[in-house]
Amino acid sequence: MFGVQPILQFMDTNIMFLLSMIIASFHGSIYSKARLMFSVNFNLMLSGF
To answer: Domain locations in the chain?
Structure first.
């Protein structure tokens, strides 16, 4: 039970990353890609990676 939380957090950030990449490829504009990459990096910083 001790090591479950970081693994779940890591999986969650990976899923968010994949979702944002899919959304970015749908949008196709540079602005939305940059914004999604920034939010992913921000989430990674918040979660401590």
So the answer is: 8-47
